Structure formats: structure tokens, C-alpha cells
Amino acid sequence: MIDMIISILLGSLTAMVPIVLTSTGAVVSERAGVVNIGYEGILLMSALFGAMFAEMSGSPWIGLLGGAFVGMLLGMLHGAITVYMKGDHIIPGIGINILALGVVAFGITAIWGTAGQHQVPSNIRIQPIINTPYGGLSPMVLITFVIVFLTHWVLFRTPLGLRIRAVGENPEAADALGVNVERYRFLATVYGATLAGLGGAYLSVDWLGVVTKEISSGRGFIALANMVFSGWNPIRALIGGFIFGFFDNLSVWVRTNPAISQVVPWQFVATLPYIVTIIIVAGIIGKVRPPKWDGRPYKRE
Amino acid sequence: MKADRSMISSFIKPIMESLIAVAIGVLIGAIVLKFSGYSPIKAYVALVKGAVGSAYGWSMTLSAATPIILTALTFAISARTGIFNIGAEGTVYFGAIAAIVFTNMFANPIWGLIGGIMAGILWALPAALLKVYRGVHEVISTIMLNWIAFFTALYLVLGPLANPNDPNKTLEVPASARLPLLMRGSELSLAFIIAIAAAIITYYILWHTVLGFELRASGYNERAARYGGINPKKAIIWSFLIGGIMSGIAGATEVMGRPPSYAISQGMANIYGYGFDGIGVSLVGRNHPIGIIFSGIFFGALKAGATYMQIDAGVPLEMVKVVQGIIVVAVAVPGLWDLVKKVVRR
Predict the structure, then answer these.
(1) Do B322 and A77 count as a contact with CB atoms less than 8 A apart?
(2) Per-residue confidence (pLDDT) for residue B5, from 0 to 100
(3) Set of chain B residues whose Cβ sits within 8 Å of the Cβ of A294
(4) What is the reported pTM?
């Protein structure tokens, strides 16, 4: 019994990393007023390029940084379109998601010469810091905790955080007080995308050790759901991420457990994280409030 | 005179912006090809030749355009109502499955289409109701429903619908329920005509009926629409339902009118991805049903030509998806036409 609990706990912690990182980034971005639904695509492309950088350099840590870098670039693209060119906030995200489907499918073939799937060699994957017979714990879990608490502290306890929240809540007032609305919105967008990039690289060079067209499996959108669940609060996103990570991991665990998979087809268990997401979001709405200028371009009068 | 001119420019501008986006996609695609060690010219020549260089090429282009015109209509209707329904992907699966089940029960193409339509309505309802009654953002709900549909469909394809005689696909649509071909030996069937008709009907609904006016009014300005006596909730539900019907038909016609398989292939490869392609088609077609016909044929040509590009120029056919993605990102850049004019004038 205790070994099962440890194994589920470790699995949930492992599965929560990409969701929590992306949610935390999304919280910052939306607190500043920029909606980005392109995180799914950022996760995908960072998983691809993260693995590529890791294999080129021989170091998984370079792979993680490379993934974050790809996320940063995509965040700059989204920020340029939404913040500086005052474009729609949803459509660029859709574009990045569609672009990612092509880039990853083409990239796997162009980089490794295989179709559809690439296995990342085990010697360039992040090694767990704690190893138990029931599973390991990646150092990325600890790093995720640190990032979440730091982000929370900056967002709610520093002048920088106050400005970020101000440009998303009331950009007119912030502008009148001399805060550069566009700069803070842009930086928040880039920060959010960078964290998602880190989470994407984690998928390929750490947790799953593989690059496929489906590697992100909707986690970019689950992270957005988790952001809503958190009420745009990083620490609550950490807790929500654990819940989502639990179900994400549960479906994998059941799939590999013959006693259960013989009774219930694995495909039904695989739908669990998505059903839970819908139920949680449907239940939480009305109890949380998004930032007032979320998703609205700010133009000076 | 002046009014005429601004009308013409409001008609020309979106077309120019889409064409510029396409040009950007092709150009950046060429750079990616170059850096990946392929010859861009060779690749594009093979692509164009394959897609539109022969009558057969054209038939492949049009048959590839068929499902993505329909899924694009799903997105366009929602966009005109002010929402982002990206649930076409999952609806296509159930449209195809329903068509297989219904045609195996009744052996008649009409029943296949009815099955697709019913599946489309049923699978559109959850997201519509969640949006209207619980305020769940449709982007989150439709993506989650896509994944639920994916795994559920996978179960049905591998399990109850598995073909006892052929492990590579599901039960077939019986011969009497297949859509007639428009050209012998091709993949082009009546499905293409159905897609064009669907686009025209959508245009008619949106711009020539009261319902269409209500959809567009609540999409343009929800508060003003409500003030004018329009119920935005009703508009949203209708927009989801009509959209669902289009994607349901897309799935049905794929299995009823696309030789040689007339079934869902293993891993659902022949019905996968149309929902996402459709979003790109709709955006490039400026969310307008007539624009969608043209952009659908363009994206169809990319798909049809990709195979030839792979054979003749050795370029992985996924390359066209990269081009497609760049085009969609470029479309998202506001005021592309003004931007280009500014640069040209300088």
C-alpha cells in the first residue's frame, strides 16, 4: 500500500512540472493583460528543439535552456503582435499551435531522419536526484517549486509585480502614473512563454524521453484551465497542477497496470485528465475573476 | 464615387492581406528548406506540378480541399459569432464513425450524411452548453473534447468497428452508400460538391437570414445586440450547432466519398488533422464562406502537391504543414497590407 502511495506521489510530482511551469507563465502573462493560447505549440516546439540542443551539446541542461530560449522567441513573436501591433490575442496563438504541428512533424524527419517519433538517448536525459524502487524525482520538480515561489513573491511583493498587475488591471491608470504599459506587457508575455518553453524541453529531455507529434497532449490547454482554477495565482497553480498531474499520471499508470486495463479499455482512462479539466473549470467559474484588461489591447487615447 | 472606392478597398484589402501572408509562408518555407539542405526551387516546382499540373493533380487538390472547406466553415461561423470553436477536429472523428455505422445499417448515402449531421450536433452540444450556462471558455472546452473524442474514437476503431477481414481499417461503407465519383479513377467525388454547397448555404444563412444577422450582431458587439433584443446565448448555441453539422459532414464524406479505403484507417490517419487545417483555411479565407472555398482549394493543393514534392524532390511531405503554419501566423499580424505599403513607399 505504502509503495503504491509513494509511486503515485512521485508520478504526480513528475507529471505536474510542465503544467505548473506553463500555468505560472500564463498567470504572469494574463496578470499583465495578455492572453496566449499558443502554449500548446510552444511546448511542442520546445520539446523538439530542446532534444535537438541536448543531443548537439551532449548536455540535457543545455537542452532545457534551449527549450526555454525557443519559448522566449515565440513569446517575443506573440508579444510583438499583441502588445505592439495591437492585434487579436487568440489568433496568433492558434497560428503558433498550427505552426508547431508542422515544425515538429517536419523537424523529426529533417533532424533525425525518422518518421513520427524520436527516442532521446538515455545518457543525455536529466538524471533523477532521488531514486526509489517506485520511481525517481527529477531536479526539475524542485526547480519548478523555486520558480513558482519566486514568481509569486515578485508578482505580489515587489514594485515590479505591482506594475505587471497594474497594466493588466487598469492600464490607463498605470499609464497616467508613468508606467510603460507596452514594455511590461511584452516582458510578461515573454516570461510566460519562456517558462512554457522550459516545460516543453522537460517533456523530451527529462520526463518522457521522446519526441513525438503528440508529446504535449493538450497540456498547454490544461495549463490554461489550471490557470483559471488558480484564480491567476502562482501558488494555487502549483496546487492545481498537482491535481492535474495526478490525473495525468493516473491514466499512464492504469494503462500499464494489467489488472485494470483488462477491465476498462485504456482509451477511456486516457480521457480522464480532459474530463477532469472540463469539470474543474465548469465548477470554478464565477468563483474567480480574471484581470480586468485580460486579452484587451491597450491603445493610448 | 468616394463611397465606391472605400467599398472596393474594403473588399480588396483582406484579399491582399491573405495573399501577402501566403507569400510570407512560401518565402520563409523556402528559407527553412534551404537550411534543411533541400532545394527550395525543386521542391516548389514539384509541388505545383503535382497539385495543378494535370487533370489528375487537380482532382487530388479538390478532393483534399473538401474536408478542410467544411471544417473551416465550423470555425468561420463561430468566429462570426464572436467565439473560437476549435472543436472541429473531434467532431470529424464522430462524423466519420456515425456514417460508417449508419451506412452499415441502412446502406444508403443519405443515411450516412444524416449520421454525420447527428454526430456533429451531439458533439457540438457539450461545448455550447458549457459556454452558455457555465461560462467555460470554448477554447479550453473544445480542445478537451477533441482529446476525449480522439481516445473514444480510437477505442471504437480498434474495437467494435474493427474490420474482421482487414486489420488495417474499420468496417467499410457498403458500395451502395458511397458517393459517386466525379472523375473516373480519381479520389474526387460528390463530396466536393457537397462542401461547396455547404459554403454557399453558410453564406446565405449568415448574410440573408434573420438568424445569420443575429449571429453576426452578437459577434460584432454582444452588448449592443442584447440591447437590440437579440439573445446572444441563442446565437452561440446555433453557431455551435451549425458548425458541428459542417464538421460532422466532413467526417461522413471522408469515409463515404474518398477512395480507396471507404473506412477509417488504422490510427485514424485518414481523418486526423482536418479540424486544425480548417482553422488555417478559415483564417486565410477571412472567415468568409466564399473566401474559404478559395483558400480551401489552395490548402488542398498544398496537401496534394506535398506527395509529389516528397517523391520528386525528396522533401518530407510535412514541410507543407510548416508553410501552412507560417501563413496562419502571418495572417494574425494586423494591418499586414498597410505595413507592406509603408515599406514599399519608403
Answers:
(1) no
(2) 63
(3) none
(4) 0.93
